[in-house]
Structure formats: C-alpha cells, structure tokens
Amino acid sequence: MRMPTHKCSLLRRAFGASVLCVLVRALVLPSSAQMVTVDFTGTVRTLYGNIPVPLTAGDSVAGHIQVDLAHLPAGGFPSPDFGFYSYTQRNPGFTFDVAVGGQLMHYDSTTASMEGGPGMGIVLMHGPTFDQLTFDLRPHGNPFTLQFAMLYTQSPLALLIGNRFPQDVQPAGMTGAELSYMDVSGNNGFEARIDSVAFVVPEPSIMCLCALFGLVLLWSRRVGYLRRETISGEPEDRGCEQV
Question: What are the residue ranges spanned by the domains of the chain?
C-alpha cells in the first residue's frame, strides 16, 4: 500500500530541512574540532640571569598550547618559505600554558603585548637546512616571552610542506623541539629540552560530514527523479510505500 504523494513529499521536505539544520549547526557553532593543540613535556636545560620562577637545571616542565582556528588571524606570506600569523591585535583563541618549578604560567592572546619586541604569534619558516614551526606569546607589560619551537634538521626536510598553518604542518616530520622563557634583553630566563610532543590537528567534524552526506543523498535522489521524468515524459508517481 502506498502513502499519498503529498504526505511523502512532506516527509522528504522535513528530512531535507533537518539535514540543512544539522549542516548549519556544524558550520556555525563552536566545536573542539576547530582547535589545534600541542602538548609537550621536557626538562629545564639552561638557566640565565635572574628568573622570577625558582628553578634548577633538571626540573621537569610541561606545557599546553591551544589555537582556535575560528579566530586565526589573516596570515602574512612574504615568501613561499615564510608564513606569520600575528596576534599583536589581540585576536582571541591562542593560549600558552607552562607548568614548571611548581608554578603555572598562563599566557592568553587577548592580553598579548603591543609593545614591540619578539613577534607575538605563529611562524612557519623553511630554511636551506631546517624547517621550524614557532609559537610565541608575551602578555602586555610582562618582559618574558614563552616560545615553543618544533624543528626538523635532516635532509630531505619534512616538517613543513608550505607556509600555511595548520594544513602545511606534518608533525611526524619533527626531529626536535625547544622551549624558552626569556626576557626582551635575552639575559634572563631558561631553556628546556623537549622530550615528547603531541600535535593534534582537527579533522572535519562528524556532524558536518553526516550533513554533507545527507545533502548528497537528497541531490542524487532529485537528479534520478528528474531523469526518469524526462525519459517517460510524464511526472513520476513518487508515492511512498507504507510499512
């Protein structure tokens, strides 16, 4: 027994509207799938001058960097070998946390320095003998910059395949990483050797993929109906079988 055509049409429209709602929600609402995260652990290697954190060489250090791609600044690309995403305008979404010496340092791009000095942001650099991805952040009024650098120094270079973040970063190609906490003079702070890094780049959200699949399904069904209608020369009875 077939369901009346007008009822079947209403069901198809309701399904289509639901798919569109899911797609819009996936694209518009914030999601953890927009976050690039870098987690690392290491050991303090070298101390310089006066440091506001009580440390000794050999102390453990751990850190977490998070970049919200929904608020990623427009990048600057002066050459194919260099890309820079500046946070000097205090774009939100970039945080840098380091735990060392029993203290937690939390830097946030919404309070980034506007006083000059080291660049606040994300740098991709492809040199003749190295690839380097660097995260720099310093709060306004604070002389100390946190810098985390991922490196590749073997031939052929494999950390970066371009100058765009994050799509041109290949974390598996990293051969080393370093953390520094230095003031603007370069005379006070510490450097740490990094032993482990977990770099996570977001994948397309499942919700968005499901919505796109639904749209493709609706489109293919519509094209198939129009094809059959054109061949027969008569409108097709698209009534639904009632279960």
Answer: 2-26+206-241, 35-200
